[in-house]
């Protein structure tokens, strides 16, 4: 499921941007995203214009801070893309600050138990569904939040919990059963390390574990997200039912594009000299 976009000033904008939580609840959803490590709104706009449905701003590994988020969220929404933030920690204060910036969802790392998942949901939802602190003068509330903001935020903001280790796999059924978890996001890179195969997310054993995980989640009806290093991997997991495929990362794709351009120039010069 991609978004319906129309040209507008060189960028494509959505004509139907449903809340991400609602979108992820639909089993027919197939969103294509990528991780963002370059803290530039121009990169967000380029990715949206290229056709990515969502960007995952990486606050865990990228040189990005919460201060960078408002501009990126504005750029993404203006170009018709969803903007999520992958956090480096799951503290209530950090989750609340990120959500106050207006992101459509949070991706929370290293969830290894139902208790971890419950704490994450609690921090991301306003009462009575959780304990998120309210400030009506933040971007997410339109700088002048009313009571309706509490309801719309709870109904719209998605909570994705990352399962990326042996403990998380063992507790998967309990994690998926936690009310308010909208999707389980699989981290095959860290999972490969946990399985003694560091840096090998496409190893047959890792693929076997991921497929088993997705099969188990499918039986629960909960959404699945997953990091995919290549288009081939993304297509595989989308066919398997992943509702959010995070394909590669901005910096990886940019580097590959730069290398292809220089290699093409080198090849053309070589052909010219041989004539």
Automatic annotation (TrEMBL):
Residues 36-222 form the HpcH/HpaI aldolase/citrate lyase domain. Transmembrane segments: none annotated. GO terms for cellular component: cytoplasm. Pfam families: HpcH_HpaI (PF03328). Keywords: Lyase, Metal-binding. GO terms for molecular function: aldehyde-lyase activity; metal ion binding. It comes from the Bacteria. InterPro entries: Aldolase/citrate-lyase_domain, HpcH-HpaI_aldolase, Pyrv/PenolPyrv_kinase-like_dom, Pyrv_kinase-like_dom_sf. Belongs to the HpcH/HpaI aldolase family. This is HpcH/HpaI aldolase/citrate lyase domain-containing protein.
